[in-house]
Design goal:
eight-stranded parallel barrel; 590 residues; 25% helix; alpha/beta; Jelly Rolls; TIM Barrel; 13 helices; Immunoglobulin-like; seven-stranded antiparallel β-sheet
């Protein structure tokens, strides 16, 4: 997928050089050229030309989805690419979208530009959302390959949900080589990235209200009398909010052969300097656990020994054969033996980590991974949570899934499916304590869209965690800007309690360009954004003088503090934790 920017509902003047005269990639009238195509499965839809009321154009396509298909691509309007294109040609697609049904809801359409035949290489494939008002989208991308006329398709997929959407004002134009999004009037980043974007002020107000507490420091002498004018410093030492990362136990413990001693030292140092929470990327997953539980337990103990007590267990059940021990597939014809094997594993791992793991992802990615449920029934998911609760009453039990905040926030089918699974587990009285949203991004989702999604899931009444954030892009400026904005989005939302990166070092990251620190241990801009926000803007280190009553007050971010007060040669110290309700502490000068 190759693209740089999406701008919705905004018209900008041109920046930089004037672009060349564009070449249309859809011949003639796009509404005529785009033809409805349906797959062979159960999907049903219609496409008809209708008047476009309230728009700056006369007609639109009314796209009605009446039955959902097996695959998202099975319902689309499609046109053959009409012009020859070169790899890296700059393309600007412009269209308007309006949602008719569901009323007051959202409709989703995916713009998809792909090769006509195998391997169906995609130059762009991304969904967008629109509500009941017309919304314009301007999407810039670059062609992935050279194509002759007719060698590629321009599609609009509309099969994620039953809906009625209006699509019009369509142009898809090739501007040739060397043209950038800014040359075509686009914001170089994404919708909501502007410094004066409306969502920012509201987010800052929420952070100030939600994430701080009042600290009252009473400075007294040895006889308990107030000490006016004493100089007080309130220095934060640890966030209450969880700022975490995925880690690898073999690297942490110095067991990875490919890692040098300096790599291990740097890995440990950066971990302890930048995070107060961890999740083991692989070591606590079922197959690695059975292969080498000693490594996982040693990794947990290392964390505890070094003061990191917020530890997530990931994960107990990932219900697809490829993520389960191989012997489970051999039990498909024996449901009771399969059921026992799963429950015994939960008992084993939860018991072994009881008291040292604070949270468990009991169930991972259940919307797309259903191998066990197809044999044991969906209700068995509740049994997994109940078994985990039985063997560790104090651990927080989470469900976890992907594509909830990512994909422009427009993977409606996945998002709705995840919501319904959580609701269903509630009906079964499964002890689901929290909701995990993974956060693997290939492109930015507008912050306002993510806030609406978080609002919806918050209605389920459970804490939400961003559990696996990374942004896989070569554009380091874009990566840093979105990291900063996602951190702000999450920290500002009242339901979000923790935020975890899915690794930080390029030398130990499943998507190396998504890391925050390069292989040579130099910092990337997204690491600097992390430091700027977590240990800069949201970090309290305040000084001031006690008043006539010997009291010094400060409103600080919730967490642990060291307090020091002094007057002349007399000094006093204390430690304290600030919560949402605030706290007070007495410091005695000796």
């Amino acid at each position: 997928m190759r693209f740089l920017a999406v701008l919705a509902g905004v018209t900008c003047g041109l920046w930089g050089q004037s672009p060349t005269q564009p070449v249309p990639l859809i011949a003639g009238d796009p509404l005529q050229a785009l033809r409805l195509t349906l797959g062979s499965g159960p999907g049903r839809a219609t496409a008809e030309r209708v008047a476009a009321e309230g728009a700056g154009f006369n007609e639109a396509l009314k796209l009605t989805t009446t039955a959902l298909p097996a695959n998202e691509w099975d319902i689309r309007v499609r046109a053959l690419g009409a012009a020859a294109v070169k790899k890296d040609d700059a393309v600007l697609a412009t269209f308007w979208l309006k949602c008719v049904e569901p009323a007051d809801g959202e409709c989703v359409i995916r713009l998809n530009v792909e090769r006509r035949d195998s391997p169906y290489t995609k130059s762009y494939s991304q969904p967008v959302l629109a509500g009941p008002e017309w919304k314009q989208f301007k999407i810039y991308f670059q062609m992935a390959e050279d194509y002759a006329p007719g060698g590629y398709y321009v599609d609009f997929w509309f099969s994620q949900q039953r809906q009625v959407a209006l699509l019009g004002g369509i142009t898809v134009d090739d501007y040739g080589q060397g043209v950038k999004g800014v040359d075509l009037g686009l914001d170089p980043l994404y919708e909501g990235a502007a410094a004066d974007a409306p969502w920012r002020a509201a987010a800052e107000e929420r952070i100030e209200k939600l994430r701080k507490g009042e600290l009252v420091v009473e400075v007294v002498d040895a006889e308990g009398n107030p000490v006016p004018g004493a100089q007080v410093r309130a220095r934060m030492t640890r966030h209450a909010f969880g700022w975490g990362t995925a880690i690898a136990a073999d690297l942490l413990l110095g067991e990875r052969r490919s890692a040098s001693a300096s790599d291990v030292e740097n890995y440990r140092r950066l971990l302890l300097e930048n995070f107060n929470m961890v999740v083991f990327e692989n070591d606590l997953k079922w197959p690695p656990w059975e292969a080498n539980r000693a490594r996982a337990l040693s990794g947990i103990q290392w964390m505890l020994d070094h003061g990191i007590t917020k530890i997530r267990g990931h994960n107990l059940v990932w219900p697809n054969w490829q993520y389960l021990p191989k012997d489970l597939a051999e039990l498909q014809s024996d449901p009771e033996a399969l059921r026992k094997r799963v429950l015994d594993h939960i008992q084993d791992e939860v018991t072994a980590t009881r008291g040292s793991v604070q949270e468990w992802d009991v169930l991972n990615e259940p919307y797309t991974n259903k191998a066990l449920q197809k044999i044991l029934g969906d209700a068995e998911m509740a049994a997994w949570f109940k078994k985990a609760r039985e063997y560790d009453p104090g651990v927080a039990l989470f469900i976890n899934d992907y594509s909830i905040l990512s994909a422009n926030g427009a993977d409606i089918a996945h998002r709705n499916g995840y919501y319904e699974i959580i609701r269903y587990l509630g009906e079964l009285e499964a002890p689901v304590d929290g909701i995990g949203m993974q956060g693997h991004f290939g492109s930015p989702t507008p912050p306002e869209v993510m806030l609406r999604i978080l609002d919806r899931f918050a209605q389920l009444g459970k804490p939400i965690e961003i559990t696996e954030f990374d942004f896989n892009t070569k554009d380091e400026r874009l990566q840093a800007a979105f990291t900063r904005d996602l951190l702000t989005t999450a920290f500002s939302h009242p339901a979000v309690t923790n935020f975890l990166m899915w690794g930080f070092w390029e030398g130990s990251h499943w998507l190396p360009q998504g890391a925050m620190v390069r292989r040579d241990w130099s910092a990337k801009p997204n690491f600097e954004a992390w430091r700027e926000m977590v240990y800069g803007r949201w970090w309290t280190d305040e000084k001031g003088a006690a008043g006539e009553d010997g009291v010094y007050r400060v409103r600080g971010f919730q967490g642990d503090y060291e307090i020091e007060a002094a007057l002349g040669e007399r000094v006093g110290k204390a430690t304290v934790s600030i919560g949402a309700a605030g706290t007070s502490v007495k410091v005695v000068l000796n």
